[in-house]
Amino acid sequence: MLISAPDLAKRMADGENVALIDVREREAWQTASLPGALNLNVYDYFVSDSTPKGYAAMAGAFVHAWQQLGIANGATPVFFEQTVGMRSPRGLWFLWFALGAEGLILDGGVDAWADAGGKLAPGTGRSAIVSDAGAPEYQPAMPQLAATRVETIDADPTTAMLLDARRPTEYDGSFVHECCARAGRIPGSKLLFWEDVVENGRFKSAEALAHLAAKAGFTPSKRVIIWCHRGARAATILVALKLAGYQDVAVYVGSWHEWASHSELPLLRGAY
């Protein structure tokens, strides 16, 4: 799932076919990126309805953008941003979900590449945005990586757990984004703040991540449904849990933005 900057440089020098995918804003890519990198905006996409149909549209949006990049068959996709944040994990999650293909995250991102002596160059060439515009529906290869709204509502605590990846102030309802109709959290959710799984721009060790998850009350024996505000931060936690050995993990992509818009759905406010 992860590759260090020195390992990436060696594999490229050895002639391995890799597709470098810069998931930062287009302007940042155009300013300075890994030489030959493509640009893909995976951040701004928001699913309008967390249903099988909505998720088929989401998969179609990704596949449509992916095809625009013209990545050669057999190339290993490597997603990166400035440092590990919420974009490169979302890129990898999209790849898994829609196409069931393997890929990597450059641990530490552009900063780690530069620190390791890697050259940077202005981004040119192909750029795409994950968007519904012109994209047909597509049946995702790994639908289990996206929990629907109904699955989230009906989650059985004996077999599944809900993980809130947002800030503690979002969790307790003392802060709400202006675009959200209500403040609070999905009942039954436990908090694991997404920034706690990274350190100095890189993912923490598998052992540290497993300890963090256990301390927050999670166990790899249950399915973990992860959510945040609009589905991006949750992907960082999903990758962290997979690094820690969790197998059955999913993102509720509509997350709080969608949940809060349904006034019939319950919420909780306040501390634990």
From TrEMBL:
Domain Rhodanese per the UniProt entry, residue ranges: 14-122, 182-264
What are the alphabetically sorted keywords of the record? Repeat
Q: Which InterPro entries match?
A: Rhodanese-like_dom, Rhodanese-like_dom_sf, Thiosulfate_sulfurtransferase
Instruction: Quote any Pfam family the record assigns.
Output: Rhodanese
What is the designated name of this protein?
A: Sulfurtransferase
Annotated source species: Cedecea neteri
